[in-house]
Structure prediction request, 259 residues.
Amino acid sequence: MKTKRRVDITQARTKPVRLDGGVKGHAVYWLGHDEPSAFRTNAYLIVDGDQALLVDPGNRAYFAEARERVAQVVDPACVSGMILCHQDPDVAASMPDWLAVNPRMRVFTSPRTQVLLPYYGYPDYAYADVEDEPTLVLPSGGELYFIPAPFLHFPGAFATFDTASGFLFSGDVFASLDVGSWLWAEDFDDLADNMHLFHAEYMASNIATRGFVNRLAGLDIRTILPQHGSLIGKEHVPQALQWLADLRCGTDLLYPELV
Ligand SMILES: [Fe+2]
Ligand SMILES: [Fe+2]
Prediction:
């Protein structure tokens, strides 16, 4: 099935792309980056009332570009927080640069990630523990749910579900390696092949993937927004969840004799 949202990332690269359907007082943007690599990263911005939250802002080399795109939506100094789904440099290395823009920016992350983030060289910041407080209420009344995704791929990884938009910011889960230029996944079989390239070696095991899918039960997921590769629209969400629940990866493939 083809989607109607055909955004060519090589054309959209100078502007943030609004992704949500226009919930009052709430907006979600893709901040771009047409990195010439199959590993290309996605950074996002959630704006809700006086809150502006970065989701996985990305590497240091991309910081100036990301800040410029944020500035087209809100004053970067007014960004109130960043959500870091784990500590990998493609997710979090720009953290010190963002904290230099606004030292009061809150860092929403898991305790295991928090152990490692100070090694980026900016240890003094406001840390919000997403396991201690798994729900963040936004000014619009919408909520962010922080959902653990253990061993996908980091032990302390987590995803973020935005109730106002129905968006699941999934971090490395559902990431795909794709050299195409369309922002949204078009054909599910192609998407599955591209997700497999990433998940087979990165993700821990079927127990980890199936357990995470079980944690998502009951959520009305309208879009999946991974940190790499194609965004996954509603028409593909049920298949994507089933694909993840059935996936054999990591130790399942390394030690098949033990499965
Ligand atoms: Fe990662
Ligand atoms: Fe990543």
Notes: The domain at 9-249 is CATH 3.60.15.10 (Metallo-beta-lactamase; Chain A).
